[in-house]
Specification:
single chain, globular, Arc Repressor Mutant, subunit A, 394 residues, 6-stranded mixed β-sheet, 17 helices, Rossmann fold, alpha/beta, 14 strands, 2 domains
Length: 394
């Protein structure tokens, strides 16, 4: 079983909050992690999968059910399926607090973020904390060598997919995953979107990995309106399958790009959507740079300290930085991402660093070594960059 870095944080949150919500896409390992956390405690626990009618039936009278589980940690999986529970959980938590039990009552697992956060923040304010479980990260997959990182990059980080017996089995898993999301999971959440239309949209995003969103162009390509593209994008972001990276907008004296950059968050899904079945196919495709950039960004953001804010920077005259991190109190980091192990920087990066007054300038590359590039720029491997960010949290 692969150890997950989020485990320590979730364990800490359970010790400090009555309820903890773990958010992440389906098949990312939320249930496995939750059961392992619960099994490692001295107390017994109860587990309900709210997609199963037999489990939902136990909550026909939720207050009574929770009363019978008063001394247990209750794990509620796919909590977004029964949004009415949040109001009841508030009363249950408050009653238990009055009896002297402060924390560790409920572990909530969810596959959709925006609505879940809205519902729970309104009803469980001060009683709930959140943690995201991403697909496997470089550190979790023990991908210290470039070949190991390339395997993780190719297959993506969904555990069953990464651990598949070979690349063909991994591709098959991802194709089934995509089909299940489109044909079953998304309709269960409510939106009535033709599966083929949403597949074309998702594939368009993969083709444009790491580029500025051009909603009009996407709309024209799939035959819908620009507003519909916005709704589709909101849905995919909500499902934690797509990242919308906003542009830096703090420099009023510059003509800044205003459109967000879009990334399919798991690199393995990018490759599956584009029909790229092995590493040679990926390396020979125009998406290589964008796919690697998205892979690195997901790992960097997962390693960044709590409270870190992230943007990209681009001006109309060519200044550009792939990722800007505001890390309190460490300052403002400008990060460029290169698939090459011998990166060469364009002048636009240096201009951008000056514009935003970067306190640290880093190039993350695909090689193994770390070295200086002059002008205060550090070239570092991905593992080294992750270690540096982890140190900021200590």
């Amino acid at each position: 079983m692969i150890a997950r870095l989020a485990e320590a944080r979730i364990r800490d949150l359970l010790a400090r909050f009555p309820a903890v919500a773990v958010l992440g896409p389906r098949q990312v390992g939320k249930t496995t992690l939750a059961l392992r956390l619960a099994g490692a405690t001295d107390a017994t626990f109860a587990y309900l999968d709210l997609e199963l009618p037999s489990h939902r039936a136990k909550l026909s009278d939720p207050e009574l059910y929770f009363k019978t589980q008063e001394d247990r940690l209750v794990i509620l999986d796919e909590i977004q399926r029964v949004p009415g529970l949040f109001e009841i959980l508030r009363g249950v938590i408050d009653e238990r607090r009055r009896k002297g039990r402060r924390n560790g009552h409920f572990l909530l697992l969810g596959s959709a973020s925006i609505e879940l956060l809205k519902q729970s923040s309104e009803t469980l304010a001060g009683r709930i904390a959140y943690s995201e479980l991403t697909p496997l990260l470089v550190e979790e997959a023990a991908a210290k060598k470039r070949t190991d990182r390339d395997r993780l990059w190719l297959r993506g980080g969904f555990p069953d997919c990464f651990l598949a017996r070979d690349d063909a089995a991994s591709v098959e898993w991802r194709e089934e995953f995509i089909g299940t999301y489109l044909e079953r999971d998304i309709p269960l959440l409510g939106p009535k979107i033709p599966a083929e239309t949403l597949r074309r949209f998702w594939t368009m995003l993969a083709h444009e990995q790491g580029t500025l969103l051009n909603a009009a162009a996407v709309a024209g390509a799939i035959g819908v309106s620009g507003q519909t593209v916005g709704r589709y994008l909101d849905l995919m972001v909500d499902l934690l399958l797509v990242r919308r990276l906003q542009p830096w907008a703090k420099n009023a004296g510059k003509r800044l790009v205003r459109s967000p950059k879009i990334y399919v968050r798991d690199s393995g899904l990018v490759h599956a959507l584009l029909g790229l079945r092995d590493l040679d196919a990926v390396l020979g495709h125009p998406v290589t740079g964008g796919s690697w950039e998205g892979f690195v960004i997901e790992n960097l953001l997962a390693a960044a300290p709590a409270g870190t804010q992230a943007w990209f920077y681009r001006t109309a005259v060519g200044a550009e930085i792939d990722l800007v991190l505001e890390i309190p109190p460490k300052g403002r980091w400008a990060i460029e991402i290169k698939r090459s192990s011998a990166p060469v920087l364009a002048k636009g990066f240096y201009f951008g660093c000056d514009d935003i007054k970067a306190t640290r300038r880093i190039v993350v590359h695909a090689g193994e070594d770390s070295y200086g590039l002059g002008d205060g720029v550090e070239a570092v491997s991905l593992p080294a960059a992750l270690a540096t960010l982890r140190e900021c949290s200590e």
